[in-house]
Write a structure and sequence with these properties.
The protein folds into 2 domains: 139 residues, 3-Layer(aba) Sandwich (Rossmann fold), CATH 3.40.50; 98 residues, Hypothetical Protein, Haloacid Dehalogenase-like Hydrolase, Chain: A, domain 2, CATH 3.30.1240.20. It is of the alpha/beta class. The protein is built from 9 helices and 11 strands. The strands form 2 sheets. Strands 5-4-3-2-1-10-11 form a 7-stranded mixed β-sheet. A 4-stranded antiparallel β-sheet has the order 6-7-9-8. Its EC number is 5.4.2.8.
Length: 248
Amino acid sequence: MSQKKILCLFDMDGTLTRPRNVIDPELYDFLQAKVKPLSCLALVGGSDFNKIAEQMGGNDVIHKFDYVFPENGLIQYKYGEEIGRQNIQKFMGEDVLQNFINFVLKYLSTITLPVKRGTFVEFRSGMLNISPIGRSCSQQERDDFEKYDKKHQIRKTMIENLSKEFPDIGLTYSIGGQISFDVFPNGWDKTYCLKHLENESFDEIHFFGDKTDKGGNDYEIYIDKRVIGHKVMDPDDTRKQLEKLLKL
């Protein structure tokens, strides 16, 4: 195993951290001290760089991981340097983008939830993140919404309505985390980051993620033939699977 050139590529929320929480120092030390000598490390998340840095212990995450791919790889860091970025506004055009956002806001005004807070649409470089409850909710409100959503399918129903309203503009919808879903051009899911790894001469790329079922934001990359997919239950399970894979 150690003679092969291996990359371990990780989702963040639910895989290396509890949702929207900071990585456990013991797991962080395990990755750096035990895994990194045997495998290159990479991180891909739907969140922007600031959120990734916040959860992964600071901006030096780009030096601790060989590759960091915020926003599904629409922004790319390699060995601590930014090497490129893509932009959804340029891709879709302002008229289409604004029409879509207007419909989202109108739709959200028609549904009633136990609570609503703020920041319902977050504009990122490579995607829109839509949260029916609003991203400024507390951790308790976040946990409560996740349970409510499992019962009432708020996000799933909203995606169905958006798909009907905008069938021809080439968008993918992906539920991830506890309170939101991502919207991005077809092909701009987490597999987007793989194009930046294809010529890096890895013998094996192992992807670890928790939202690997169809509709989850790890699904497309989990089933991609360029990676060996590992479904994990939580950060503890990620560590156990790494220990088994690398014979630690």
